[in-house]
Amino acid sequence: MIGSKKLDHRARRVTLDLDVLRSFVTGIELGSFARAADRLGRSTSAVSAQLKKLEEQTGTAIFRKAGRGLALTDAGETMLAYARRLIELNDEAVAAVRGVGMEGWVRLGLQEDFGETLLPRVLGQFARAHPKVRVEARIARNAELIERVIAGQLDLALAWSDGTRLPRSEPIAQVPLCWIGPAAINNTPPFPVGEPVPLAVLEAPCLLRTIATNALDSAGVPWRIAFTSPSLSGLWAATAAGLGVMVRTPVGVPQNLRMLGRGEAGLPELPSLGLVLHRADAEPDPAGARLASILVHAVCEVLPGPPRSSTGGS
Known about the structure:
By secondary structure, the protein is α/β, with parallel strands linked by helices. It is 41% helix and 21% strand. The chain contains ten helices and twelve strands. The chain has helices at 2-11, 18-30, 33-40, 44-58, 74-98, 119-129, 142-150, 207-218, 232-240, 286-302, and strands at 63-66, 69-72, 104-110, 133-139, 156-160, 169-176, 178-182, 197-202, 223-229, 246-248, 257-259, 272-279.
């Protein structure tokens, strides 16, 4: 009888609540379920009840204590991945049904950092839901993206914040910057000790090039330009070959490169960099608004998130 009851329990179908999953994912992404409650228009106690319901439905612990906050268990990490997929599919289905006849043309600009990691997914998801809408995508440097938005040549542009304030700009995130060097081989330093730091940089003007040299100058660390390239792929190759180190975000770092540890090789700390979505129109058409929504959601998933242990009640 006991074995029969266990079998019945395992066979019982469980339908997860998408509202619960959305609160769960939002809390993890924001690093706080109190902030998630505010974002979703719920009380903190209501979100806590949802999380309890999720653990009851799955029959396992999703969280564990980690200092003053909560961290995900292994089951929680697995649930997070599935929850994101379920929410994405739900939102895509709703958008597809509502916008089945949506037509038009959207011009999108992206930083090269997000070209390989983000663009295929965003365009694929959008095209499945809105096959009649044509999307023109352009990969370009920061200054060019902003210029094209101002000139009305792009409807949307995902760009680094360089201090330029456009009338319709939405801050998306603060992204950490890091020093990047070749993959470690037998603990070999990224460049000879005692020599000026060799830099692999994009051709000027370049925002991250300026940030790198300013950080080195402020720390009194000598440097030299060892390699320049008009493209990010060129920097990846030069850095992997050991010609120099570069400053970038953790997004899309190839496997033959590594993010250098804090203070490694005497390199100074780096600031974070704002990521902004610029819009050409105050009220974009439905196609542009939908593409912007998909883009922002995808960006939040590829960017480094807060430590799992920081997910607390505040």
